[in-house]
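2024-03-11 09:14:02 INFO receiving multi-entity request
2024-03-11 09:14:02 INFO entity count = two
2024-03-11 09:14:03 INFO echoing inputs for audit
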Amino acid sequence: MFNSASNYADSVDLVMLIIVGISIVLLLGITIAMIYFVFRYNRKKHPVAEQIHGNVLLEIIWIVVPTIIVIVMFWYGFEGYQKLRADVDNAYEVKVFAFMWGWNFEYPNGKTSDTLYLPLSKKTKLILTSRDVNHSFYVPAFRLKEDVIGGKNHFMILTPKTTGVYDIACAEYCGLNHSKMYTKLHIVEDHQFDQWVSKVDATQTKPVEEKK
Amino acid sequence: MADNAAVAGNGNYVDFYNYKGKYSGIAGWLLSVDHKRIGLMYLYSMVTFFLIGMTLGFFMRLELWSTGQDIMGPQTYNALFTLHGIIMIFLVIIPGIPAGFGNFFLPIQIGAEDVSFPKLNLTSWYLYTIGGLMAVVSLFVGGGPIDTGWTFYAPYSIRTGTEVILPLLAAFILGFSSILTGLNFVTTVHRLRAPGMSFFKMPLFVWSLYSTAWIQIIGTPVIGITIILVMLERAFGIGVFDPALGGDPILFQHLFWIYSHPAVYIMILPAMGVVSEIIPTFCRKTIFGYGAIAMSSLAIAFVGTLVWGHHMFTSGMSDEARWIYSFLTFIVALPSGVKIFNWVATMHKASIKPETPFLFVMAFIFLFSIGGLTGLVLGSLATDVHLHDTYFVVAHFHYVMFGGTIFIFFAGLHYWFPKMFGRMYNSKIANTALALMVVGFNMLYFTFFILGYLGMPRRYYDYLPEFQDLHRFATVGSWVMILGIIIMIVNLIVALRKGDKAPANPWGGMTLEWTVPSPPPLTNFTKIPTVKYGPYEYEHYEEVVNNEH
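2024-03-11 09:21:47 INFO inference complete, emitting structure
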């Protein structure tokens, strides 16, 4: 629907299409029936109502059929997401620190940066921690977000499918400059990434000062 | 306003406006224990707070007209969306229908003279008013207007320099008002039903208030405790929620949503009750599936207490908790669906006169269905993780809360206006206002769905340039909608002063409030009625309306 950076993001779009598709059918059904009845059974044309108290069969149908529909919807939403979350072995690990109001990324070799670079062909596990209040690490192009909370190590799995530059936003309200916490995610070819990450200069290996 | 509305007796009775009690003038209202006067005092307070909340929303939309600063800085914007949320939720939507229409009509609909504890009822109104005033005062003391969002998430609410304790105390007191009203309603329903009115002959509005009252009693203490913990943590640093003090921020979210999710049903159930009143009246037809609708209220009240975790899919709960809450969330959609299907089925083979309240209900069914169906998108794990805390969520809860509860609050206002004030309003103007509201509403909030899917997070003072066109379209929608609301309210105020006198039963309703004069006398009934038939059994219409009283 809009730019998608992973196969998982495509699967989220598909789930969205399925749920929205079924929903549109239901919405149209309800709305058209309602409008039709208002014209068809208008008091001018239909002065005396038929007193119908209910119908057990109908009640059963509109409990059972929607139950099946929502279980199908539940399954689609559950399946892909659980698979993504469960597959954490052999991932490249990057630590993500959130603070008011910015991000800091720390790579295995000690390199740090304020924009996130990741290699195209690797599965990356981001370990998320906050240095102060709650934040949320949100990458719309990957259809993923996870709250970043002090004292916790939440995680997110990113498996890119194309190179590109994507937005990272904060999605948990965190005060004055919450809306300015944008940074970029660069998905680059592996050799470019190796080149970039191996350039560690003295200033970059020091952890960034904790900001209030 | 009330004095003008008072139409001295149509016939040989004294209505509750003109009844001479121990006190007269303003004291006759502020010290009155009459459920009708208390209900009206709530209604006036709520309409006022609604207009304040709406004005805040108007300025938020103006600020979002273009990227960067337009008319205010980020601190002001953050305070505005916090106040908009607090006012709309704690002062308008939660008390709205139960405390306003519930107080006025619950006793009449079950054939009682008043609620079980009239003095406690007045106390609840005072607690509500004190809470509301404290919220207003908090803007001008300490560090200034609160900027935490209405959810008060820790540890931000522990650390921010703005005034947090006073508005929290206000919410705490409002909670007590809610608990006491709930207690009063449960007791009233159990003890004061007229002879012959068994539980399954109660109007569905009463059923919905009864279900709601139980959630109020059971759920509200949890938010009370949470609020006290936040206040203690701010004042003394007890270290329950702030990770820097060894606390757990997720614990706050659990405690907050254990109440605040059921609170969503406190907000919507009474509205569903009003819908179940209005549809049979204008259809001249018994409601389809009375038992199913009544039971679905209880089912919503019960399952609704088990789904709070869906506000926390991205909060770092275990993956097991995520899917369990997702599953339960889908289940809670079913009883709401049952209600909608039964309402539409009621219109089948009916004799429909689509007057203003009925048109409001049709708008409600359309908007609320969109709200409910997009709730399925948010209940599903994969899509929620993307859409959580984006404009999609903002759109969803405005469709449910505004398109749902507030539209029905307005529907109720137009339905019961003749009964409460003894006057009729101009229905052509009311219908025009409704049309403007529906168009503006969809321009404003449907756009939010798109913004959300494109990745626009909520509670953002500023946004990326690519979102500007959609934001502008939404802002224009807000103007159309507000124009509609203003026309609607002016129309009702004009009706209060100049409207034609209303008959006892202008719509042909069958519940007991339509058997008493408009406006009703102090004790509602000259003689407590004996109930023979269910509330919407139109086959007995003549007998009930003409002979019973």
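2024-03-11 09:21:48 INFO post-check: Chain B touches chain A through 87 residues (CB under 8 Å).
2024-03-11 09:21:48 INFO post-check: Residues 374 and 491 of chain B are 33 Å apart (CA to CA).
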